[in-house]
Structures are given as structure tokens and as C-alpha cells.
Amino acid sequence: MNLNKKVFIGFLLFIIIPLFVLGSAVYTVSQQLIEKKYGDLTEVTLQAISRNIYYMFKEANYFSDFWMVKDSIQGIYRTIDSTKPNTDPLSSYDLNTFDTLLRGSILTYSPVQSVVIYNNAGKSFSAGRTSGNAIPWATIQQSLAFKHIQELNGSPLWIGPSEFKEFGSGRGEFYQARMVKDFWTMDNLGYMLLKFKFNELDQIFKSFNTNEQSSKRYLLINKNGLIFYDNKQSLDGANVLQLTQGKLDLGRNNYSFQANFQNEKSLISLYHLNINQMGVQDWSVVSVTSWKYVAGEIETIMKLVAGITFICLFFALVYNLVFVRRIIQLILRMLSSMKKVERGDLTTRMEVSGKDETTALARGFNSLVVRVEDLLDEVKRQQDRKNKAELMLLQAQIKPHFLFNTLESINVLAIQNQGKKVSQMVIRLGNLLRIGMENREEITLKQELEHLRSYLEIQEFRFEDQFRYTIEAPPELLNEEVLKLTLQPLVENSLQHGFEPIDYMGLITIKVVDEGERIGLYVTDNGIGISNEKLTKFHYKTELETPFHEILESNEERRGLGVSNVADRVRIQYGEHYGMFICSLEGQGTTMKVVIPKRKGDIS
């Protein structure tokens, strides 16, 4: 993974994601705190509402209880029971009397809209503020509420609008149904059904909703979630469980939660009235408040902060992509350029643009590469001068050495008064010196072989009838270039090191072999050879680790100096892939091989 990706991933992991997680956590916690605080406040409000509702029903029950035990009301039951048969209608007198009595007693309480009296046989009498038909006794008996009325045995049962379809669904119309007992004997006289219209409910909820008319809703529901009172008058008869998508749990104690209510995010609070002793069976109040109102300015501030945070993150991302990435790209380009320089491409340069520190860095890198290039050039020049000096020194060592040996041979012939041979040797020595004194470091292979042949002819005067030689060279290789005085020191080593102690005819074979891109120069003799102990010391790899003349005995050092010089010259001139190799078997002879590259020269 490159540096650019690492920095971008680090930016995401250590800046973007932590800020996002932190923002989400703060938002979530703040939502929960707002929900809890406002839920607690709403619970206090619902407690107050519950108390007001409690007092409203308590007052209604008190009024109902007060008149139910009065002789005038209980007399109506006795009069109805005394009518024979029960199917006979009441007399006009009784009807007027009962109506006047009820209007002067129960109907004096303003919330009561009508009252219906049933005896045990189902005969009834009703009176009300408006005309209307009373609910038939048979309908009441078939209602699910009738069983509850009997179970309460004289205590009131309150029925909300639409709670039981038999009792109607008028807005704000509540029914109180109860069994009526004889005050003295506690016998069951019959049943009473009172219809109430509590306008007071509107006042109760309005007093807690003065400034929130458009944002707050109060619902009065039963244990099944049926809404029989909505302060906004639009959800009467609906089911709150469906409106909250099943998130409202009526079995839980008072609590608050967030949910969508009529496609709007809202805070919903549930509060159980707990006034079953009033005849209200498991009713609850539900408060629905728009979350916009709950969060209020805090929500706006948080959204503003979130917006600013996202804008900052956006600019941070832009900064990362534009500025940081530019610096990283510079580092990557510099790294790529450094790798090129490391591979030896000193022409590599970085683009210089701008006026900041990155430009100075690029300019400094370019200056450094130029300086390194100059230093390497200087090192190469110094190395070339050193190599040339070494070559000149090696040649200077060969020439005196060769002249010394040749002059020694001429001196021997002169002592022996062999003037003709001395003349021939001097002529051949002149040919040798003419080639050896040329300014060129390399000559053609043809010239090198002519020089070698002159040398061998000179040596024949010294070692007369002691050795023979052969020279083999393909004609197509005669114009290849070779370092001058390459073969002569090797042949000289064979003559003076390999042949002097022998008592048989020596043989020297000089062979030139085409080896593809290289040329192999072989000098083979049948002399005494080199011992294994001395041969193992001659490790020729990339350079001659131990000079050949140091391997030989001290009295043989002068003789091995020429071979060592040849090996060093070839290595210095052609490089580590070329050089000299020695193969020898003690008592049978030695083969020396010089490997040089093919390099065409002019035939002279």
C-alpha cells in the first residue's frame, strides 16, 4: 500500500470516522436526554390532568350517589314495579310526576344530559334535556358492559364514547351505568343509566395546552387503545395502537418514547389514570407532542453544528486531497527518482514548480544528483588514470625483464663465439623492440603472434635442440585486437620454469580458439608442471587474489613476475569477466588460458 492510500485511510480512521462517531453519539445522547427531560415534564403534566379528571368523575359519582339513595328516586322504582302487569304503560300522572322529579333532582347537575331508569323486569322511564329514545333494555342486557355492571353490584361503571357500540359515540358523551339498591334492604331495585357530556374535559386539556395548540395532542383511551376523546376532535373512535404502529405498550407503567405519529416524529407519553375506584376501568391519557417542539432550538442548534461540522470535514477532505496529497505525491516522485538514481540513472531530475518548501526540496534533490554525477565522473577519471598508470608500470616491468633475459642469451652466444647466431638474435631482438616500443596498448593478434615467433626464434638459439613449438590461429581472428606482450611472458615462463630441469624434448603449443563473443589464448607445455599445493593458491575469480609470482618459491619469483603482470593487465583492461586461468598436473605439464573479448583492429 503506497503512502497516499495510507494517509487517506489514516485521515478517515482518525479524523472523519471519530468525528462522525462522536457527532452521532452526542446527537443520540442529546436526543435521549431531551426525551427523558421532556418525558418527565410531561408526566408531571399528565399527573395534574389525571387529578382533574379524577375530581371530575368523583364529583359526578358523588352527585349520582347522593340522588340514588333518595326516597324520591327509589320511589320511582317501587312505582314502576307496582304497575301491573309490567307490560302496561305508566299513567300520564306517573309520567309527569317522574319527569318533574328527575328534572328537579338528577337533571339539575349540568353535565347530566339524560337519565334512564330500568326495573329488574326491563320496564323503563327516561327523562332528559333533549328529546331522544332511551336505549332498550334488551340491548343493554346483550351488551358486554352489562356483565361488568352486575359485577360492580351498585358501584358505577363509566363508559366512554364508542367504547361500546350500544351506547353511542357522541363527542364528549359518557355514560354511567349502575345497579340501584334498596336503601333499607339492599335488594336490587333495578338499573340506572346516566348520560353525561363533560365540557369540562375541553377546559382541562386546554389549560395545559395554551401555547401548544398546533404541537400537542391529548388522547383519552381505554385498555384496548380505543380513543374516545381527542382534544383536537379528529381522532375520536380511532385506535392509538395503529397510529403508533404498535410501538405503544399499554401494559407498561407510565413512560415516554419517540415514534412517528401521523407521519410526524413525535414524543409520545403514556399515563394510566388509576381511578378504577371511580368506575373508570383502565383508562389512560396519552400525550403526543411534535418532536420539533420538544427539541425546539436545541434541535436547530444541533443541526447547525452538524452542518458546520460536515462543512469543516468537507474542507478538511479537500485539504487532504489537494495539499497533503500534493506533498505525498512529491515524496512518491522523489522516491521513484531515488530508485532510478540507485539503479544508476543519473539523468533523473524532478520537476521544479512553485515557490514553497517542496520546490526547494525538489531543487535540492536535483542539485544533489548533479553533484553525485560530477563526483562519479571524477572518480571514473581518477580510476582511468590509475588503470593507465598501472598498465604503464606493468609494461615497464615486462620490458626490462624481457631485455634482461634476451641480453643474457646473446651474451652466452657471444662467449661461445657464435657470431652468426648473435647477428640473427640481434635482428630478431630489433623486431621485438620495434613492436614493444609502439605507443599503442593493443595490437592485432597477427602482430602479437609475429612478435611471439621472433621471441621463440631468439630462444631457440639459447635452448638449441631442447624444445619445439607450434602456433595455430584461425585466419579470421588475426585482425582481432589483443594487449601487446600477452603471450610472450607465458611462453617465457614455460621455457624457464617448465623446461630447464627436464631431460627430454620440450613442446610448447600456442593455440587461438574462437569462443563466440570471446577469444581463448592457450599456451600449453609438457614441462614439470606445478604442484597441487601451489596451484590451489591460485584462485582467480574477479581479480587475482594472490599474484602468481608470490605463489612461487623465492628463487622463482623473478620468473613468475611476467605471468602475474599478464593476469593483472588483462583484468584491468577488460574487466572482471576476463582474465587468466591455469591448469597444471605435476610432472606432465601446464596449460595457461587467457580470455579476451573480440575487438576488431587494423591489419598492419
Please summarize the sheet with the most strands: 5 strands, antiparallel
Proportion of β residues? 15-25%
Uncertain spans, ≥5 residues at pLDDT below 50? 540-559
Shape: rod-shaped
Fraction of residues in helices?
Answer: 40-55%
Mean pLDDT: 82
The termini sit apart by 64 Å
Radius of gyration: 64 Å
The number of strands is: 17
Number of helices: 15
Query: Looking across the biggest beta sheet, what order are the strands in?
Result: 2-1-5-4-3
Alpha-beta classification: alpha+beta
Plain-language structure description:
Mean pLDDT is 82; it is low at 540-559. The protein is rod-shaped. 50% of the residues lie in helices and 19% in strands. It has 604 residues and is an alpha+beta fold. The two termini are 64 Å apart. A 5-stranded antiparallel β-sheet has the order 2-1-5-4-3, sandwiched between helices. A 5-stranded antiparallel β-sheet has the order 7-6-10-9-8. It has a 5-stranded mixed β-sheet with strand order 12-14-15-17-16. It has helices at residues 3-68, 71-82, 92-103, 137-142, 144-152, 200-207, 240-243, 291-342, 357-415, 419-436, 445-462, 488-499, 532-535, 548-551, 557-574, and strands spanning 112-119, 124-128, 157-159, 173-181, 188-197, 216-221, 227-230, 255-260, 265-272, 284-290, 442-444, 467-472, 481-483, 506-515, 518-525, 579-585, 589-597. One of its GO terms (molecular function) is kinase activity.
